[in-house]
Amino acid sequence: MSTTFTDYSLSAPLLEALRELKIERPTPVQEEAIPLIQSGRNAFVESPTGTGKTLAYLLPLLNHLDRESKEIQLLVLAPTHELVMQITKVADLLLVKSNQTAQAIIGGVDVKRQLERLKSRPTVVVATPGRLLELLESRKLKVHQVKAIVVDEADRLLDAGFLRPVQEVVKRLMRDTQRVFFSATMSEEVIQLASSMASEAAVIRAVAPGNGMGVAHMYLVSEPRKKVDTLRRLLRLVNVKKSMVFVNQIDKVEEIVSKLEYHHLPCRLLHRDTSKEERARSLQLFREGRISVLITTDVAARGIDVADVECVVHFDPASDADSYVHRSGRTGRMGKAGLVFSIVAAQELFILRKFSKQTGISLAEKIMTHGQLLDPQERKDKSAPAKRPVHKKRRFETK
Questions:
Q1: What does the DSSP assignment read for 162-225?
Q2: Where does 215-396 sit in CATH, by number?
Q3: What are phi and psi of 181, to 5 degrees?
Q4: DSSP letters along 14-75, please?
Q5: CB within 8 A of 63, min separation 6: which ones?
Q6: CA-based diameter of the chain, in Å?
Q7: Can you name the CATH fold of 5-205?
Q8: CB-based contacts of 9: which residues, under 8 Å, 6+ apart?
Q9: Is 235 in contact with 293 (CB distance < 8 Å)?
Q10: How far is CA 285 from CA 55, 160, 289, in A?
Q11: How far apart are CA 230 and CA 245, in angstroms?
């Protein structure tokens, strides 16, 4: 007999909210994490992207909120504006039947406006660490009644760029505040850092929902000056409704958008230097399917939940294996099928070889010819009139 959310003794308002959202059965990470978090334990939870991590921590923690209290009782930290807003939206949808609210706190926007909104007495605050610490240091926000804190995308929030503000926020909490860390990738180094902030934590390493569909990881070799044209041809060939293309440099994002639009491929850009309003607009158009291609830096690699992204393209190699996993995780969410392509120059192949070894992901080389995506050997066998590619077939597999 399969598990349902009623098995977790969730409050009636939460169960009603889940029914309205048409969320019926827990995913593997939710099955493992919800009972543990409900017990009050500190926890480190690793689960692949798109497996329902947000509900895995929100449901048990929201279930423990005091509906009579007007104080902040739950803090959630996240690395990007987009992820903060997304988590806040989910929390609000779950709280709607309880007459409680969540408030987003992010950098780069007017502090006075955020302070004004805090006067509405939210029960949940979702924040980027830097802005939250700023408000705590200026005594504009109190956290003495916080029952639990969640560090989402923990591998990112515990790296050099975010570690200090995260530590400073945690120091201001009560000793018995529950601490929960979630990520798609959680190395022993991350667990060691998190352990200094959360004693006696349980470790959960959950699997993705299994339905036999899976994600195919492939790569195409291209001359550096022809990569944009290779991308254009690939997007035309796969012809899916939603594709995300990851680029390392901001100026490259705008160049690619310009070239694709010239060839009548509607797309939008997303990077840290675009305004908050423009970023929100690009995501909205992409979610609604009004544009089919989103060109972005790693600002969209973590936690951004866009339904039915069918294809991810690494136009530039990810910075490391974990980043490759996070980028690729924008597709194949909740066990659905997905396509992941890397467009690499010949001299970048060693990077894919390293990622394959570190992640255990098999990457197969493909070529585009005559409107088809083929293995190099298939093209040879068919004796196609086009010239034989100078590179040899490579297939990276980790046994």
A1: THHHHHHHHHTS-TT-EEEEEES---HHHHHHHHTTSTT-EEEE--PPP-S--EEEEEEE--GG
A2: 3.40.50.300
A3: -120, 130
A4: HHHHHHHTT--S--HHHHHHHHHHHTT--EEEE--TTS-HHHHHHHHHHHT--TT--S--EE
A5: 8, 9, 10, 11, 14, 38
A6: 75
A7: Rossmann fold (3.40.50)
A8: 38, 63
A9: yes
A10: 25, 33, 6
A11: 12
User: Residue 369: which residues within 8 A CB-CB, separation 6 or more?
Assistant: 379, 384, 386
Q: How many other C-beta atoms lie within 10 A of the C-beta of residue 56?
A: 29
Please list, in sequence order, all residues whose beta carbon lies within 8 angstroms of the beta carbon of residue 173, skipping any fewer than 6 positions away.
75, 143, 146, 149
Residue with tokens 């705590």: 136
Q: What are phi and psi of 179, to 5 degrees?
A: -120, 125
| 5-205 and 215-396: identical CATH topology | yes
Q: pLDDT tens track of the chain, all 399 residues?
A: 468 899 999 999 999 999 999 898 898 999 999 999 999 999 999 988 778 899 999 999 999 999 888 899 999 999 988 889 989 999 999 998 888 999 999 988 888 888 988 888 999 999 999 999 999 999 989 898 999 999 999 999 998 889 999 999 999 999 999 999 999 888 889 999 999 999 999 999 987 665 445 789 999 999 999 999 999 999 998 888 899 999 998 888 888 888 888 888 888 888 777 777 888 888 888 888 888 999 988 877 676 778 788 999 999 999 999 889 889 988 887 767 889 999 999 999 999 999 999 988 999 999 998 778 888 876 655 555 555 555 545 555 544
Dist CA 87 CA 82 (whole Å): 9
Q: Where are the domains of the chain?
A: 5-205, 215-396
Tracing tokens 């492939």 back to the chain, one arrives at 218
Q: How far apart are the first and last CA of the chain?
A: 35
DSSP 8-state secondary structure symbol assigned to residue 258: H
DSSP assignment letter at 381: H
Q: Is 154 helix (H, G, I), strand (E, B) or coil?
A: helix
Distance CA 250, CA 253 (A): 5
Rounded Cα–Cα distance for residues 327 and 151 (Å): 19
